[in-house]
Each structure stands twice: as C-alpha cells, then as structure tokens.
Amino acid sequence: MGHTYLDCLAVLGIGGAHPGGLKLTKEILSGEALDQSKSVLEIGCGTGQTSAYIAEHYGCHVVALDNSNIMLDKAKQRFATINSAVETIHGNVERLPFADDSFDFILSESVLSFTDIALSISECQRLLKQGGKLLMIEIVHEQPLSEKEEMKIKDFYGFSQLLSENGWVRLLRQGGFEQVSVEKHAIIFDEHDLKHATEFSPSENVSHEYFNILKEHEYLSNFYKDNLGYRIFRCSS
Amino acid sequence: MSVEHYHKLCNQYMGRAVRIRTHDGRVHHGIIRHVDRRRVYLEPIRSNRNLGGFGYGYYGYGYGFGFGIALGAIAGIALASLFFW
C-alpha cells in the first residue's frame, strides 16, 4: 500500500485537518442559522471533530461521511463518547449515497480539492434542499505557480486540481451555485493556543513513513506559505 | 500508539506547545523540551485560559527540562500551531 498524505492523516488520526482547525469551524458555523430542525451532512468528516461539535452544540441531525474506514472508525469512537447521535456513512463525495434534496447544510472542510471537484460540487447541489447551503473551506493558490511547482504540490497532497479563488467560484457557478460569498482569512498560528491544539488519535501500528510525510508536509506548506492560502465559501442556489 | 511512536512524535515537535492526557486522567500543558527513551519533558505553560489541571507539584523539577511524563502513560496528545490542508 502506498503511503499518501491522506493515509497519513487517517493513520495518525489528525483531528480538524483543515486550515484554521476547529476554531475556524466554530466561527463559520456561528454565522449560520443552525438549529434542531436542520439536517447537516459533513463530507470528508475525518475523525469527526466537527460533526460531533455540530450535533452537541446545535442539536442538528448530523450525517458524517468519509471514504476512509480508518477515519470513520475513529469518528465512531468519538461519537460514542458524546451525548448526541451522529450517523456515519462510508462513501465517496463524487457519488453521494443520498436522495435529492436531503440536507439543509453540507459542510466540506478541505475535502473537495482531494476529489473530482466539478462532480463533487454537482453532487452537493443535488443533495441540498431548496434554500440549502454549501459551506466550504478550501485551499487556493494566491499567485500562479509554475507548472512544475503545481505538480509537486498536487502529487504530494493528492489534489485533483489546485485552484485560485476565481477558479473555485467559476466551478461553483457552473455547478449551480449562483450565490457564492467568499471570505479570506490569514493563516495565523497561536503557538500557545492549546485549547485549539491539533488532536492526534493514532492507530496502533504507525509506520515510520507517516512521520516522514508529516515532515514533508510541514516543509512544503512552509516553503509555499506565500503562494498557498485558503478561502471560506458559502454557496447557495 | 506505542512508546516508540510517542517518542518519535515528541522528537519531531520539540519546542512546540503540547497538551498531553495521561491514562490516570490528568491533562498536562507545556512546551516539549526533551525526550528520552522513557519520558517526555515539558516546560509548563502559564495560561490565562482555563484549561484544566496543569500537574504542578506532581513531578520533580530536578531534570533541568521541566517535568517528565512517562511515554507509556500517554493516552492522548494534541499539538498547538499545526497546520493541515
């Protein structure tokens, strides 16, 4: 089995593996009308940090989907420790196993870049109820990269495409999301913010290779810190 | 995760802030200052935030690296200022 970046996140059980972590997630959600009457699908739920937070904090009906069984197992362990129910489903974002008009909100925290973006967007559009919203945090390139650099980043992370902000908006519009609001946040590290520290829920046997992937990731994201950023997209039809 | 893996992880994140939960239910906050085969040594962080128990007084300060936590006692670990896509 090849050792990929996503395998590394799964095996080490990185919680909140997206820009801004759980802290940004909380900020984004606080701007939305979430309550007990709302149904939420989190695609690419990982270890389930966000889904657990939504279920506990807002009382929504939450469905958490991931294509990694390792991640889903860790998510299930987490959900078993909270007082709210979260449904878990194994599946692919490009072909989501739900009927049309199923959800009020779909949340994607650095997920679509790892999938066929256009397909995933149209799936999300299909699943959202009328008036529903797709909330995303996704990587963007701030300045064009050379073809070689772009390939290097895409290969390492397993991104299907590395888009600019405009590139995302274009694909979202093509996929049927006519209203797209975009927010830009800086990448800020609070060295001592342990309340929002990144959780590890590692598997029993972790190959050394995954620690090297972690190192390579830190090197790459630091090297390209001026070229790579992220945006928050709030999208509706 | 094994002692060996916590050893590797702590080594990789030397100098970074960490929150460690041990099997006895305690939570420790500090900067990783040293790791040996059996223990990780943290320099405690003072914080205005209400983060729970700091474990002061339970570990000696004679190590020169802050207080030591047996790697085998670690139940969970969280690291500050990590970034993922």
CATH class of chain B, please?
Mainly Beta
Oligomer: heterodimer
Order of helices and strands of chain B: HEEEEE
Strand order of the largest sheet of chain B: 4-3-2-1-5
Name the descriptors.
heterodimer, A: 237 residues, alpha/beta, Rossmann fold, seven-stranded mixed sheet, 37% helix, globular, B: 85 residues, mainly beta, SH3 type barrels, five-stranded antiparallel sheet, 5 strands, 36% strand
Write the layout of secondary structure elements.
The complex is a heterodimer of chains A (237) and B (85).
Chain A: H1 5-12, H2 21-30, E1 39-43, H3 49-58, E2 61-66, H4 69-80, E3 86-90, E4 103-109, H5 117-127, E5 128-141, H6 147-157, H7 165-174, E6 179-184, E7 198-200, H8 208-223, E8 228-236
Parallel strand pairs in A: 1-2, 1-4, 2-3, 4-5
Antiparallel strand pairs in A: 5-8, 6-8
Chain B: H1 3-12, E1 17-22, E2 27-35, E3 39-44, E4 67-70, E5 74-79
Antiparallel strand pairs in B: 1-2, 1-5, 2-3, 3-4
Sum this structure up briefly.
The complex is a heterodimer of chains A (237) and B (85). With 237 residues, chain A is of the alpha/beta class.
Report on this model:
The complex is a heterodimer of chains A (237) and B (85). Chain A has 237 residues and is of the alpha/beta class. Chain A has one domain: Rossmann fold (3-Layer(aba) Sandwich). In chain A, 37% of the residues lie in helices and 23% in strands. Chain A has a 7-stranded mixed β-sheet with strand order 3-2-1-4-5-8-6, sandwiched between helices. The longest helix of chain A is centred in the last third of the chain and has 16 residues. Chain A is globular. The mean pLDDT of chain A is 95. Chain B is mainly β and 85 residues long. Chain B has one domain: Roll (SH3 type barrels), CATH 2.30.30. At the A-B interface, β7 and α8 of A face α1, β1 and β5 of B.
